[in-house]
Amino acid sequence: MDTKTQVSKDEVLVSRDGAIVTMTFNRPEARNAMTWGMYQRLYEVCEEVDADDAVRVLILKGAGGKAFVAGTDISQFTQFKDGEDGIKYEKDGDKRSGRLARVKKPVIAQIEGVCVGGGFGIATAADIRVGTPDSRFGLPIARTLGNCLSMSNYAAFMDVIGASRLKEMVFQARLMSADEALTAGFLHQIVAPAEIESRVKEIADKVASHAPITLWAAKEAVRRLQAARALPDGDDNVRKVYGSADFKEGVRAFVEKRAPRWSGK
Prior knowledge:
Layout: E1 12-17, E2 20-25, H1 36-51, E3 57-62, E4 67-70, H2 83-101, E5 107-111, E6 114-116, H3 118-125, E7 128-131, E8 136-138, H4 141-144, H5 151-161, H6 163-172, E9 176-177, H7 178-184, E10 189-190, H8 193-208, H9 212-227, H10 235-242, H11 245-255
Parallel strand pairs: 2-3, 3-5, 4-6, 5-7, 6-8, 7-10
Antiparallel strand pairs: 1-2, 8-9
């Protein structure tokens, strides 16, 4: 399995307006589903933002208005041979989400439409999340692919929506509405689609005007407190799930555009 594919220059757009850098996931025809190269570019942008003291805020958004990020491009999972490929994928994902969580500058997720799977993970690693009334959030993996998450991902989601809600959402493969996400504390604001661009810019400008070291200290303190807990090893879970017949069936069903037939094996 090769997860180091180069990203097309059109799949991720990076722009700058003064102290604010905006990264746009730009595959609207695929609801901005992430390729390996797009994930790699996200990591690189985090590095670039941290290396430039003049950058004060990073904004993440999806192109097209219909999706923030609709997870990982599932067609790529046809490359997987066994559970070890699943372990590598989840560890690479932990590295990327961990890097986003460690960005020294505040990160704002501007969310329109679907935000699921890997997209839900990216948004969770952001510091401020602003959505539209039609935004939806979740991990419908029990319905779509039959895979699982790493321990660090489960922990991150539990931090923002709680253990009970997390399990119920995964079990039912349902998506959380914008209103529920706001009530749960996941979203910080809901803004009309026509206004979200200007509202996020307003928030970013305000944050960028504040003492950067104070913001960094608060962000880093929270990150360290969350990281201080010892997580149990979950490689056995990942190995079993990604090596299962059900995972292979989920990938085949997606590629063949049909409902999966789960066997529990």
